[in-house]
Fold:
Amino acid sequence: MSESTFFTATFVLYVLSTCVYFAALMARRVKWAGKGMALAVAGLAFHTGALVARTVSSGHAPFTNMYESLSFFAWATVLALVLTDLKFRLPKIGPYVMLVAVGLMALASSPLMPKDAVPLVPALQSYWLWLHVSVTLIGEAFFAVAFVAALLYLAADTEEKRERMDSVSYRAVAVGFPLFTLGGLVFGMIWAYRAWGRYWSWDPKEVWSLITWFVFALYLHTRIVMGWKGRRSAFVAIVGFLSALFTYFGVNYLLASLHSYR
Amino acid sequence: MRSLLKTFASVRLAITLIILLALASVVGTLIPQGRGPEEYAARYGDLAGLFNRLQLTTLYRSPWFLTLLFLFAVNLVVCSLSRLGPKLRRAFGHAEGIGAGSVAAMKVKSRIDVPGPPAEALARVSRELTSRGYAVRPAAVEGAAAGLLGRKRRLGWLGSDAVHFGLLVILAGGIVSGLAGRRSHLVLTEGRTADVPHAGFQVRLDRFETEFYPQGAVKAWKSTVSVIEDGRTVRTEVVKVNHPLVHRGFHFFQSSYGWDWESARLEIVVGLKGDPASARTVVLRPGESLPVEGPGITRLGVRRFVPDFVLGEGNRVQSRSFEPRNPAALVEAWNGEERVFVGWVFSKFPDFTEGHADDPAAGSGRTGLSVILKDPRPAPTSVLEAAKDPGAGFIWAGSLLVTIGLVLAFFWTPREIRAALAEGGGRGNAVILGGFAPKAKDAFRSEFEAVCESLRRSP
Structure:
């Protein structure tokens, strides 16, 4: 199967998963949520196929332009959802995280995103491309889960639900933060040093990664040391994810940067 | 002094500083950094002066931003050190005098009747905990005959300290880079040798090639570089983007490329139209003019040359780039005192050549001159960045510490279980068990229950 067939199948499965999830939510059938998860897992398998096919056909890592990285980000988000679900068995976050994934897939398949596999410019020809981008985006996918849990916290109506969402949000940050630090900042610095000769140039992408890192550092310190929980923590997690999104999209389109890969 | 120390030990200050640093960083990405004053004036008008005074245009180097970073570093040091003592005691200390109440006051606790002889009860608890990876030591418990303390994943207590110390090392690396870092650009054509500033050795560019993909995009720039010490070539390596050459602490990066237009020679063929025998070849530099012996011409000059001809605003001739995409020369020719030709000559469009511009009276049509610019072949230049950055080592060490610290802090969360033999209570073998694990409550609770369950069973 070609990449686009895999991609289309993935898209269909994700949309179905989202629909089943929401139907489960509306009809209050917990069992249906399990089917939503099963569809998401099936979609993830096809998505993996799409990424592999892309890698084979282009000969390089499947995240060198906006289309590829959006697709990979969607993949990482579903992966983060599956892992979170394995750990917490929390059907509530499924529909919304899948909605984020479908949104990313829709954006990736929009005509605005050139889909051609372009040969790698010299700066990207490095195995650090694999390490830097994949680990960063997987970290950000956990931020997406934390973001959804934080929104659900704000929308929750009972104390018990709130407690769980608060806990899931924190646990997702606890996984995302080390990954983001390692992939985004540490690997980024190492690669920058090898490619450009300086580990830090105050490039807008770098600075926005740092800002995102600051926001989540704030999240952790207010929470662990000052005992913030619930509402205030949820707001910080939301700001953190929005900052991560801006690092990812905004810098490419709005600011002049060494990282403007579209 | 004490109150100052207290201020710097507070997490509140850390949070304030993090917010300020984040906001300042945002501003620094919205205002382009380090541009010329004209650009700011054009962009921001009257605000440009204000931005300049507040150092918002060189924000990340500005004294106030560096002061914020300095305060952040001091805060990190004081904050971490003031909490380090209690944490070390918690992780590795002797745990003298645990009050019996303190065991009972722990969040996760249980009272268990351990079967078997009384003297064996604590020993069983100890074995059980040891088998689960706890480091167990006896501890005196007030009001109890005996007690013990089991701890697991004790390094986890120091995770955040490792992160903070790593950040300090990174900040120190930044300072070292700023003060002791050496960088310079070496612009080299093939065969040229250049001194590396502050290095005491030289590098020579043996070969420079640009590889292209079939579609035309650049695939790689390859500089074959030799290191020369005291006149001897000590090593030769290919430098590519992502593959620097490292010699004596100096890194040589493929930074840029170009063409050596300065010393490029232009080859111009001039002659009468329709008469190949009259053609003469003149080799000259832009700005030069040379005598020519030919029919209807005595002197030829090149007033200007651009490698990538384009008409800009107001029909002004500009070069779009330094690449030889559309090389063009403004050529003049004289016959005695009379200028017989002036016009732009394009190497890629020889037919387009005709006199125009300043002197409508003079033209090739009238004189019947044919002027052809041969495709110029400037020497390719490779731009290497030579950098010695003694701060980089700090950055890697600090990054390693931060990474290890994060793993410890989030995935190696410490657990503690205390046990006290309750005297005279119940059937004589009652043990009070209490435990806590601040960052992994759920996982710990299930382990604690498993411990209790196992102790309740007969040995």
About this structure: Residues 63-92 of chain B form the longest helix (30 residues). Chain B touches chain A through 48 residues (CB under 8 Å).
